[in-house]
User: Fold Elongation factor Ts from Candidatus Chloroploca asiatica.
Amino acid sequence: MAVSIELVKELRERTGAGIKECKDILEQVNGDINKAIDILRERGIEAAAKKTSREALEGLVGVYVHYGSRVAAMVELNCETDFVARTEAFVTLANSLAQHVVALNPLYLSEADITEAIVHESGLSREKLIEEQVLLAQPFVKDPSRTIQEMLTEAIAKLGENIVVRRFVRYEIGA
Assistant:
C-alpha cells in the first residue's frame, strides 16, 4: 500500500524516526499510524537496551525552582557525549525530571536502594514503597501513563546514547 507523504510526515514528527523508516513501517501496517508508533516504540526499546551498558560520563544538572522559591530540586542527568548533553531534548528532560522531583518528592533513585530494613520501617509493601518513593518507578508527574524509567528509555532510543539519572536532591524551606 502506498502511503501519503502527510502521513509519513506526521509519524516522523510524533516519533522522531527517519523518513524512510516511517514510510516502510506505514506500508507494513497499511497506514495505521497507531500500529506504526507501537512498532517504532518497540524498536526503540530494543535499541535502548543495547545502549545501557555504555558508560555515561557527560551530561548536565537539571534545575527547577518552584514559584515562591520555597522548594527546588537538582537532578544530575548523564549521557555519553557533550554533544547530546547540549541538545534541547536532553536539557528539557533534565529540567522536567527536576520538576518531577519537586512535585513528588521521591526518596530513592532506584529499586536497588530499597533494603529490607527500609521496607520494614516504612510499614508499606515493597511494591507500594517502590511505586511511591523510587524516582525511576514513579509515574511522570506531567504524563502519568509513563514512568520515569520509560521516559529515559524513550530518550535513549531518540537520542542514540545511554542516559542515566546519577543522583538528585530536593530542598524545601522548613523541611
